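lol forgot to send this yesterday, sorry. struct tokens for the thing we talked abt
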């Protein structure tokens, strides 16, 4: 795996911290939460997408695709957070409640579980590869 530079690592950590602060503030019904979560998700996803794997291990490639999917889901959760603030999609009220209202939490949970699983498995697969060489 391509290692991030020190600045890229700091940007990624800051993005993760902003995502935690934004999602926590949203649970306390703060109106500014989406404006903190969205840049954090963008920073986190961008830095993770900069990490590349140039090796031939198919398992790690599959896990990287899983991480990229979770990055996209983080961005979708940010979009749904904005949509949760008001019905700017101009949906009927029942459709809005059914498809948009607080569904960002489910998307965020799926993304976090995928991220956790993939990062744990990638580190163990990289250790296996290092032992083989």
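and heres what i got for the seq, position by position
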């Amino acid at each position: 795996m391509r290692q991030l530079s020190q600045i890229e690592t700091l940007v990624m950590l800051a993005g993760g911290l902003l995502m935690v602060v934004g999602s926590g503030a949203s649970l306390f019904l703060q109106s500014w939460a989406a404006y903190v979560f969205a840049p954090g998700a963008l920073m986190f996803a961008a830095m993770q997408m900069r990490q590349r794997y140039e090796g031939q291990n198919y398992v790690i490639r599959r896990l990287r695709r899983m991480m990229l999917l979770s990055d996209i889901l983080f961005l979708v959760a940010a979009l749904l957070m904005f949509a949760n603030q008001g019905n700017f999609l101009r949906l009927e009220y029942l459709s809005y409640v059914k498809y948009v209202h607080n569904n960002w939490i489910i998307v965020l949970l799926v993304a976090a579980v995928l991220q956790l699983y993939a990062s744990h498995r990638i580190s163990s697969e990289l250790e296996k590869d290092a032992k083989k060489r």
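The radius of gyration is 17 Å. anyway ping me if u want another try
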